Amino acid sequence: MFDKIKAKGWDTDVRIKMINDFANIAKTKIENIDNKTILDFGTGTGLLLLNFKNAKSLIGIDNSNDMLNILKEKIDLENIKNISLYNSLEEVKENYDIVVSSMAFHHIEDIDNLIKNLKSKLNKNGQIFIFDLCKEDGSFHKNNIGIYHFGFDKKYLKDILIKNEFKNIQFEVVYEIERNSKIYEIFLLNAQI
Questions:
Q1: pTM of the full predicted structure?
Q2: 2 falls in which pLDDT band (50, 70, 90)?
Q3: Three-state secondary structure along 108-123?
């Protein structure tokens, strides 16, 4: 889905600004970030993950090798040493303190299983930060292949997090994207174990 052509053009000014804004919002809610291991699920070209390069260590997961290859170029250019990259969550052996994810969850069919798997290596008092689309009519993407959710409503995700024993669940609309002559809302869902 995210092939070489799409990966090469991924880092647009609009996307960079949006992801930097997401990172700044998350950073206001994370204490002692330089002592944390941060996992970015659906890292793509690393726009969100590299905002946390001062953390103790970074883990990026993306199933697109083309996206990860662009991220590897950035890592080499910036000589970042505290980072590990994987194609799937199952490959990750280390535990982590923080999970971040930007606009990836609507591409995942089984959200309950994903949350369960993310939680399995999340350290005590760990946090999760999910940025994604609020419920929409399916018009956000021009082609809905690989799109399993037309955004999310608050109750659906909160219920999954509660089922997986997360607490302090906060859901807030933090951003708007204008696309296809419409405005789409982006939420932040933050929770803790």
A1: 0.92
A2: low
A3: CCCHHHHHHHHHHCEE
